[in-house]
Automatic annotation (TrEMBL):
Domain FAD-binding PCMH-type: 1-212
Pfam entry (one): FAD_binding_5
Protein name per Swiss-Prot or TrEMBL: Xanthine dehydrogenase family protein subunit M
Database matches in SMART domains: CO_deh_flav_C
Domain of life: Bacteria
InterPro entries per the UniProt record, alphabetical: CO_DH_flav_C, CO_DH_flav_C_dom_sf, Diverse_Substr_Oxidored, FAD-bd_PCMH, FAD-bd_PCMH-like_sf, FAD-bd_PCMH_sub1, FAD-bd_PCMH_sub2, Mopterin_DH_FAD-bd
Keywords: Oxidoreductase
PANTHER family: OXIDOREDUCTASE (PTHR42659:SF1), XANTHINE DEHYDROGENASE SUBUNIT C-RELATED (PTHR42659)
């Protein structure tokens, strides 16, 4: 790790007035600094800022500095969010990691994290060895010829499914952005992960009220049961009445360069009976547009199966 200056601003205004890299839980930033992937000259410890609190009154509001473990345990949090958090990391990491930091974590692509190899996301124009190399964990959706790295956050998948927004504060004031719109697919600029402006900070996550999202779940398929990143995951919320699907929200992770919403699957579910056959029919379009690589073609078939598994799990009582 290279030398850096550490400061701890006491107010949001102080933090915004001080150029540097924000540090909350540090579970991603410190790792990348140790690897020399990130080498900030100045780090701003923002843990003293008033960006905490969980309000489950009308909808759900979560302060960006809330810890993952506290949010997962809160009784007003939708099940899909809680389950995504509980499957994200070890208990020790969940006790440290912040909600805002989790949404902004960098990819876990091994080439990105190895400074001895090329990586367009780390050094633009240097190449993407994952395309022809070790790519079993990589994306099949939202990729480009410049980058095939997956997005790492489980929480972001659940929040994208629920149309969550993030409140941002910066030198130009405050703005609110749909979380799905904040993330950027790589295209020709894979070094740009999102549309945060320089010095901008997430202050709060806002999830619109959705009463039937109490019927929701998060299914994560991975190589081992604990502390592992997703091969494929599905966040599902569904409204079933009289045996038919009235509405649904579906997003997936582990297969795309950003948290990936599936509006075509949602549309196919609406009005359909809540049965395995209908779920399989709807999920059949989940992998449309997939671009498999040499070692991850299995994700194109794993994806619809994971969506169906989540739908069956969350509607088990309706089919009993």
């Amino acid at each position: 790790m290279r030398p850096f200056e550490l400061t701890a601003p006491a107010t949001v205004d102080d933090a915004l007035a001080s150029p540097g890299t924000f540090l909350a839980g540090g579970t991603t930033l410190v790792d990348l600094m140790k690897l020399d992937v990130l080498t900030p000259h100045r780090v701003l410890d923002i843990n003293a800022l008033p960006l905490r609190g969980i309000d489950a009154g009308d909808g759900l509001r979560i302060g960006a500095l809330e810890r993952m473990s506290d949010v997962a345990a809160h009784p007003g949090v939708y099940p899909v969010i809680s389950r995504a958090l509980l499957q994200s990391a070890s208990q020790q990491l969940r006790n440290m990691a912040s909600i805002g930091g989790n949404l902004m974590q960098r990819t876990r692509c091994s080439y990105f994290r190895d400074v001895a190899t090329p990586c367009n996301k780390r050094v633009p124009g240097s190449g993407c060895p994952a395309i022809a190399g070790a790519n079993r964990m990589h994306a099949v959706l939202g990729t480009s010829d410049a980058c095939v790295a997956t997005h790492a956050s489980d929480l972001a998948v659940a929040l994208v499914a629920l149309d969550a927004r993030v409140r941002l504060v910066g030198a130009d004031g405050e703005r609110t952005v749909v979380l799905a719109d904040l993330y950027r697919t790589p295209g020709g600029t894979p070094e740009v992960d999102n549309d945060l402006r320089p010095g901008e900070l997430i202050s709060e996550i806002v999830v619109p009220r959705l009463d039937w999202a109490t019927r929701s779940t998060y299914v994560k398929v991975r190589d081992r049961q604990s502390y592992e990143f997703a091969l494929c995951s599905a966040a599902v919320a569904i409204d079933v009445r009289d045996g038919r699907v009235v509405d649904a929200r579906v997003a997936v992770g582990g297969v795309a360069t950003v948290p990936w919403r599936l509006p075509a699957v949602e549309a196919a579910l609406r009005g359909a009976p809540a049965t395995r056959a209908s779920f399989e029919d709807a999920a059949a379009v989940a992998a449309e547009g997939a671009r498999p690589l040499s070692a991850n073609a299995f994700k194109a078939s794993l994806l619809p199966r994971t969506v169906v598994r989540a739908l069956l799990e969350v509607t088990e009582g309706d089919r009993a």
